[in-house]
Amino acid sequence: MAFLEINGLKKSYGETQVLAGIDLAVEQHEVVCLIGASGSGKSTLLRCINQLETIDEGTIRLDGDVVSGEGVDVNQLRRDIGIVFQSFNLFPHMSVVDNVTLAPRKLKQATPDEAERRARELLDRIGLSARADAFPDQLSGGQQQRVAIVRALAMQPRVLLLDEITSALDPELVAEVLDIVRELARDGLTMLLATHEMSFAREVASSVCFLHQGRILEQGPPEQIFTDPTEARTKDFLQRIIEAGRL
Amino acid sequence: MTVALEPRTTARPLPTCKVALPAAGLVVVLVTIALVWGTAWRLLSATAAGTSWHLFYLVVGLLAAVGVLALLRPALHSLAERGRAGTALGSQDLQAARIHRSRCYTSAWVAMGWSAAAVLVVAVVSFLLANDHAVQKTFLSPEMLSQSWWETTKAFRTNVFIAVVAEVIVLVWGLLLAVARSAPGRAGRPVAFLARIYIDAFRAVPGIIVIYLIGFGLPLAGVPVLSSMSPTWSAIFALTLTYGAYVAEVYRSGIESIHPSQNAAARSLGLSHGQTLRSVIVPQAVRRVVPPLLNDFIGLQKDTALVMVIGTVDAFTQAKIYASNYFNLSSVTVVALLFVLITIPQTRFVDRLIERDQRRQGR
């Protein structure tokens, strides 16, 4: 059984079905990239795994344990599965270091001193220790997103979900964020990421999933998906990406 | 089908400068000067010479009569610029013509704007002078003002006490109500329902009726503790009940104005609903609602005058004693002035806060 396993996941908003039965298995230390057009369900899938959205049907297992549905402590689950958002969502009324230490402190994961020491270590690793006491609105978008990643990492999650984390960034700031993700991948963190950065996906992914209308239409190693896709829709999608000069 | 994109070829119109506007400006100014002089004359002729008030009126009247002549400056400047615009137009200097025309119009409007303000002041002064100074004597009698202001101001401390204590309690009570009103889940529903009924009810019932019911009703009902409250504390209790409902709505609007992504970010880290509210949502919401909160507090402060109905001796009660003893309302004017004095700094402060917030959002 895979480390993170999703079976028959369905999700609708009213009449609109967003996820139409997703089956996905992610092994430990794997990096799985979700690609697909806007509205194909990438973000919803990630939000369902973190249970920010309730799921209608299907199960999610983490390390063999069912973590979806009735009776599951979602707050506990979310310590194991972190998520980073497209729009950073840092807490604007807190300094960078407080953003990072909030959850460890409140959830008694660490004493305040310990949490702060660890936060500063993590910030140092991403080259932002000098901005630890700044407020989010004093940082560039790239810096904010790096802090958001560190904030998720501070809870020491077993899986990290990344929801189009470079889509709201100016082009010149994308690299500094992707560098961190690359490093996390090298360290063996299990990650599931939705992205429009195809060359990055090709580089770091162990496996790429192409989503279309709420289903995983095609999954395979990056080389195969990007150079020799079997599905016509995947070809169409990649063709349009190439025409837009993004691959 | 293609749409032709041809540049417009018609020439720009030549500047023209009409004489009507500067002329109107001058007429308005002359009428205003006549009105001010007439009123100043009435002011002087209606008071007996030799009194200190006569001297005061003399100074005020003379200052007004001389000061109003300043209106002539923009009016005449407007006419002069009109002349220069005409000359420039005659010598085909279009740019100069436009500049002088623009100055001519601006000065004419300045003259008329200040004249309008002066006429309004004249109207108010005329009202005070009406019926042989009767209006002024009723509301602003110097003798009554000096006789009543000290006792009234002392009694005003009761209003300030009621307001400050009620505001502190309301800050907490309103927040509790707001959080209860948005209690989540099946377990939270009855709590949210009760909070909603409370807020609806106390926003609907006039404050004066709540004060009356609490102030007279509780002592009659003989409830322990509550019935033995002094009228002042009854007033605090009643105002807290009413304004708690308003402030709860202010808090709620603040809480709802925080983008859902903040909630998602906090919950995604494993924080519970309560932890998220306390650490992430409420601190941001409170900052946002400080201006409307202070507005409600100004309302609360003014409503402290309603405690008169249950016999608390506040500034208004004190002033009414003077008013009915002497058939003169000047003491009540003192109360009005006291409220103005404490309210204006707060409204300015609120304005500053709103300005600061807008600057921050513009960044």
Blueprint of the fold:
The complex is a heterodimer of chains A (247) and B (363).
Chain A: E1 4-13, E2 16-26, E3 31-35, H1 42-49, E4 57-62, E5 65-66, H2 74-80, E6 81-84, H3 96-106, H4 112-125, H5 141-153, E7 159-163, H6 171-186, E8 190-194, H7 198-204, E9 207-212, E10 215-220, H8 222-227, H9 232-243
Parallel strand pairs in A: 3-8, 3-9, 6-7, 7-8
Antiparallel strand pairs in A: 1-2, 1-4, 4-5, 9-10
Helix pairs in contact in A: 3-4, 3-5, 5-6
Chain B: H1 20-45, H2 52-67, H3 72-90, H4 94-140, H5 142-181, H6 185-204, H7 207-221, H8 231-257, H9 260-268, H10 273-303, H11 315-326, H12 330-362
Helix pairs in contact in B: 1-2, 1-3, 1-4, 3-4, 4-12, 5-6, 5-8, 5-11, 5-12, 6-8, 7-8, 8-10, 9-10, 10-12, 11-12
Keywords:
heterodimer, A: 247 residues, alpha/beta, Rossmann fold, 9 helices, globular, B: 363 residues, mainly alpha, 2 domains, 81% helix, flat
How many domains of chain B?
A: 2
Radius of gyration of chain B: 31 Å
Give the overall average pLDDT of chain A: 93
CATH class type of the domain at 4-89 and 158-243 in chain A: Alpha Beta
Give the H and E element order of chain A. Answer: EEEHEEHEHHHEHEHEEHH
Helix proportion of chain A: 25-40%
Q: What's the CATH H-level homologous superfamily of the domain at 4-89 and 158-243 in chain A? A: P-loop containing nucleotide triphosphate hydrolases
* CATH architecture classification name of the largest domain in chain B: Orthogonal Bundle
Number of helices of chain A: 9
- Give the N-to-C terminal Cα separation of chain A: 34 Å
Dominant shape of chain B = flat
Q: CATH class of the largest domain in chain B, please?
A: Mainly Alpha
Describe the largest sheet of chain B. none
Low-pLDDT residue intervals, each spanning 5 or more residues of chain B: none
Quaternary state of the chains = heterodimer
Of all chain pairs, the largest interface belongs to: A-B, 24 and 18 residues
